[in-house]
Structure prediction request, 138 residues.
Amino acid sequence: MFLLLAVGAIAALCALLWRAAAFALPTFLGFAVGFWSFHHGAGIASIVVGAVAGVGAFRLGKIAIRNRHPILRWLTAVVFVAPAAVAGYGIAMQLLDLTSIGDTWKIVLALGSGAATAITAFLRLLEPSDLRDATGEY
Prediction:
């Protein structure tokens, strides 16, 4: 019973880690602003300050991606997707180092994980209405 609970807890932590990787830029910004405000005397309110900064960065990205200017859309996508891809690659490499597979397969699997995390980060920026085609279907 304990073994099942431990495996479930590890799976839940991995899912949480990958979700944070998909939101790498807002997560990092929220932690950075939160720690900065804590070190400058905000105390426990630094948690709220960090959360507001992270959510604000994500909302700003969602607003910028809906802009009609293609260069701004691409820059916003790159700014949000690149850290997510690096985070997904790094997480996969760290977890795959615990296994006994070869280095080539570690890199291939980590690159796949980074690509999947980048795609997830890009799709999280889009609104559901942006994913529909001309017929209104997904």
